[in-house]
Fold:
Amino acid sequence: MAVVPVDAERAPAADVAAEVQVLNLIYQAQLKQEALLEGIRAQQAQVSPSLSPGAGVKIIDFNMPFFALVGLLVKIALASIPAAIVLSVIYGIVAFVVIFGLSVLGIGLSALGAR
Structure:
């Protein structure tokens, strides 16, 4: 840890006073920013009064060329292949654990189906 020399002539009250001035400047800047934000919100409310901060969005129309839509659907289909592989591996692991657990308990698959 570094040792910082202390100025013997400078009183701690002067440090506190300087910090208070800096904090007051920060507070004044925050007040100005809040006033600007309120002005922007008021302008937005005048432009579109139906859009409040909690309002949802409703899509009315979707216009996309046919071949662009086909391309998008092909990309979605190709992207689903790795997800299907991962899900099948997880399913295989779960099935193996269940079957192995039943075999350890002495319950065979034939016992599950026969009554």
Remarks:
- The helical segments are 12-47, 66-104, 109-113.
- Residues 50 and 63 are 24 Å apart (CA to CA).
